[in-house]
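Limitations
The structure tokens in this dataset are predictions for the assembled complex, not deposited experimental models. Users should treat interface geometry with appropriate caution, especially where small molecules or nucleic acid strands are included. An illustrative entry is reproduced here so readers can see what is and is not provided.
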Amino acid sequence: MNSLNDLWAKRFAHYMSEVQKYMRFVFTGHIAIVLVFLVGAGGYYYSEWLKTVDTSFPSEILVAVLVGALLMMSKPVTLLREPDQVYLLPLESHMPQFFKSALRYTFFSKLFVSIVPYIVTIPMLKATTTLSTKAIWVIVAVIIVLKWCNVQGEFVYRYANRGANVWLDYIVRFVVSALAVYHFLLEDYVFGILFMAVAFVYVTSLAGKVKGKPVPYEHFVKVEQNRMMSFYRFANYFTDVPHLRGSVRRRAYLNFMYSLAPFKQSNTHLFLVLRTFIRTDDHFYLWLRLTAISALAAAFVDLWWAAAIIAGVLSFATAYQMKIALLTSHSFTMDQLFPVPASMREQAVRTVMYVFMAIQAVVVLLCAVFVNPYFYLLGVIVFVVAFITERMTKTPEQM
Amino acid sequence: MTVLQLTNVTGGYTRKPVIQNLSFDIQKGELVGLIGLNGAGKSTTIKHIIGTLLAQSGDIRLNGVTLQEDMNKYRSSFSYIPETPVLYEELTLREHLELTAMAYGLDEQTLATRQQALLKEFRMEKRLNWFPSHFSKGMRQKVMIMSAFLVNPSLYIIDEPFVGLDPLGIQSLLDQMHARKKEGAAILMSTHILSTAEKYCDRIILLHEGRVRAQGTMKDLRAAFNMPNATLDDLYIAMTKEQDANEQSK
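Predicted assembly:
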């Protein structure tokens, strides 16, 4: 059916323009520089570690688990939309055509995500195992085949069961994929091929169940919506995604923080910004995530200067994103009418940033105490970088 | 005594003005209805008064000052109830009231007294610690109304207040408006519920294509349209027909 192919092509073009629109910000923003630093630091640290790593290091298991997990993540990209539940119903018998294009795209777009991390682990495999170069590249072919099985497998499982208990399917595919890769890493080709065959049988048996079942539009639309939401949430770290509204949680255990803004007129915005920051998931988890990463790095990176760079870079990322998140507003809010000076909001955001960046500094410092001889320096770096970031970066209105 | 005075105000979102040469005033203790068709410029007028849009020409004085002359005095002289409730999803009802009280410089004692009375009037006492996501449209509206009345300013600007409120809520709102009026507050209310407007407003401003078509008491309006005994609905429909006739002749 021609019209459904056209439909896919149209959807795909629209989707690509949407992705490009936001990816532009991802690659040109300040955060891209941060990422380059992180990747650089990570790469350096990795190569240093490879020089010292022991051959007893269990790289086979590590790689099998990593690749298995990446293979498992094969959510179908269907680009279905809510109205399709109504308007595509009459075309139900032609839908396999549409899904074929969808799965082809899913396969190619996700293949990359499984192969690149594997390639990154190749130096480690070389350093810790006796695998031949040929055997290492055979596994790339194995990953391609397994990815195809996983993409088909997740789709038919979701189709046949309308998404119920999808975690079962995840476990099966993870275990089978990881075991297949593991045996190829041991150059045990008999078992490797056996597990690939299991994966194949799993997919074909599920595919049989799909026949004659109506298309679970509702489920696929939901999967698609969630996928787009996570994309928008990701893009939101780099720029403002207008239609993204964060969910809110009370987090009553942080109520004591509100004593920073006692009842008086000059605290109006501080009262508001404190609560906005603590209770909006997007804002709060942003800070929490970056603080946790920074703390982990401080606790495990024993090259003092590498730890210092990571702490500084993450402090910049946290502070900058906090500032953007708390100072941009897209719509009318009542505080725009308040009879208080306009600068009060900026002042409040500054205070909240200093408070939470000081907390990050203390956390990082404490995590580094036993690892890093200059642990106090890390805390100082975190706070000073945050302070400079707050002072030197533009406020969103000026951009 | 004049609370709000608009003199030859022209303005809109872009260079093409939505409202043109608008002039009217509101006196102390007066409830004035702002009536007009969709797109007549009611919301734009209100946005100019609250200061989210700035006039291209003309000026707006509230208690004798413009927004530019004395921002704090201007802003603390009015409170605003928007057509669609604008709440902070991350603040509870109690915190909305607290934030408003802080912003307008109320002391805690005043807040406690006024809050108690308003919560009782609008039957929201049990919802103090709720977040807006658990509120219905009507309850959200009530949060806006309570925040506005908490401030006790000299001018209330109320945009389409009755949609979404239950009958008890409407009655409470009308009672509150009446009480504040008696204390000397001025109220500007925009609405499509004409029977209510006719019954409660002291004066009515009929907006048409961004200009004041007619203003005054019901008696004045009937005279202006030359329709004795007409209700506000009749006058409104007459204005609609006038518009249709104009459009067809274009």
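Some entries come with short summary sentences. For this one: Chain A touches chain B at residues 245, 248, 250, 263-265, 267-268, 271-272, 275-276, 279-280, 331-340 (CB under 8 Å).
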